[in-house]
Amino acid sequence: MLNGGMKYVIILIPPLILPAGREGRSGDRFYLGTKEMNKPAIIFDLDGVIIDSEPLHKRAWKVVFEEEDILLEDEKMAESIGTTDHSLLEKIIRENRLEPDFAKWYEKKRIKYNTLLKNNLKTFPGVASLVKQLSEKYSLALASSAWLENIKFALSKLEIDKYFAVVVGRENVKNHKPNPDTYILTAEKLGLSCAKCIVIEDSLAGIRAAKTAGMRCIAVSNSFPPSRLKEADLVVSSLEDKAVLDFIEEVRAND
Q: Which secondary structure element, helix H or strand E, spans residue 246, and what is its range?
């Protein structure tokens, strides 16, 4: 009771409690709470790590240029794994004196690849279970040079999209792997320093992007032999290898 006979009622509203690692959100950016900031985040690449798509990229380009009576060698196309298609396309255009209309060639390839992906989507052994298991302890992100439409389709089709707090694709950065921008942006969206992130990659370009960003990197030899992946902190032949979880737990314990 205050002067004048007026009564005031104070209503206490309990704070909103969100799941761990989701204390706030702005756009597609999650801001982690203090406890979560002490844990590393796990960043997956898409092609060659989650989905077995490199053969589909090769096939799409082959079909595009077969229509121009140009035969592409597998060895030449292997050079572009882990990066964008720009360097490959630039070389094909130069060597075959084609019209330098990159947008036209990209669109032709995009249409072929999308059809192949929708009819031939395959994941690697152990990926889905690893994603689910890691999501119980860590924040997960996906960082790829793939188009966002392909990333979202693959994650949704595999029913693992809900586990990824952040997704960064080709459209989100100007400079692609082996440039570190893709991984630096992903760390920013997670609200973490690069040193708190562990990347899972399959190519030397991806490994170098992660390491240049200041991140630890696990490489899986789905696309290249282990001898080509030695710059990673750990190289495994499959994500089913127990060494993957052991490495992540060791990093967490020592940070």
A: helix 242-254
List the one residue out of 159, 156, 148, 131 whose CA is nearest residue 42: 131
Lowest mean pLDDT: which of 54-58, 134-138, 204-208, 245-249? 54-58
pLDDT of residue 19: 39
Q: Could you say which DSSP state residue 140 is in?
A: E
Q: Tell the CATH topology of 24-52+124-254.
A: Rossmann fold (3.40.50)
Report the alpha-carbon distance of residue 232 to residue 208 in Å, rounded: 8
Pairing of strands 24-26, 29-31: antiparallel
CA separation for the pair 187, 141 (Å, rounded): 9
* pLDDT at site 155: 98
Q: Which residues contact 143 (CB under 8 A, 6 or more apart)?
A: 43, 44, 45, 168, 182, 183, 185, 186, 199
Helix (H) or strand (E) holding 151: helix 148-157
Please tell me what DSSP assigns to residue 247: H
Best CA proximity match to 45, nearest among 217, 251, 245: 217
Which residues neighbour 43 within 8 Å (Cβ) at sequence distance 6 or greater? 140, 141, 142, 143, 183, 186, 187, 197, 198, 199, 200, 210, 215
Q: How far is CA 236 from the centre of its chain?
A: 18
Token reading at 254: 């020592």
CA neighbor of 54 nearest in space, from 145, 179, 152: 145
Q: How confident is the model over 124-168, as pLDDT tens digits?
A: 999 999 999 999 999 999 999 999 999 999 999 999 999 999 999
Nearest to 155 by CA among 190, 182, 117: 117
**What contacts 23, CB < 8 A, 6 or more positions away?**
31, 32, 33, 36
